Amino acid sequence: MISPYGMSNNYTIPVSNVGRVTPVFTGNTVDSSRKVAPVECQTCKNRRYQDGSNEMVSFKAPGHISPEQSYAKVMSHEQEHVANARAEGSKDNKELVSVSVSLKTAICPECGRAYVAGGTTNTTMKTTYSNDSYGKNQKAFEAEATKGNRIDFAI
């Protein structure tokens, strides 16, 4: 058949030496009974995690976490902060408004493995003042400090 461009599309490529195809050597297979342990690179081996907050939680002293365990250990550490926030929010004059946890991931520049590099727990508390003298004094101080802030002297 001739194409509109004047060329034939029935071009066959001659194949030669088909009889000389080398058979696949089946003896060169991977033995699945033996497992090779992954080697930890020096960057991952020397990576240390440490908590910088003023709460009593884990990782106050620098500690090593492997990349495979980083998600579980960092998330459980951040859950300690959440538990502390819930305990603080259950006090009489406190109310826990919200808690959120965010994890930061990274890629090791040496071996290319992904790992959790750290985490942050954000808490929002609402403090309510009772009718005690401290609460009254605090409200009086705030009233005195804000008096006159909305006056326009230009008139």
Which descriptors apply to this entry?
155 residues, alpha+beta, two-stranded antiparallel sheet, 2 strands, 25% helix, 18% strand
Descriptive overview:
This protein is of the alpha+beta class and 155 residues long. It has a domain at 40-142. 25% of the residues lie in helices and 18% in strands. It has 3 helices and 2 strands; from the N terminus they run ααββα. It has helices at 42-46, 70-89, 133-146; strands spanning 94-107, 114-127. A two-stranded antiparallel ribbon has the order 1-2. Strand 1 (94-107) and strand 2 (114-127) form a beta hairpin. The protein is elongated. The mean pLDDT is 77.
Please give the structural blueprint.
Blueprint: H1 42-46, H2 70-89, E1 94-107, E2 114-127, H3 133-146
Antiparallel strand pairs: 1-2
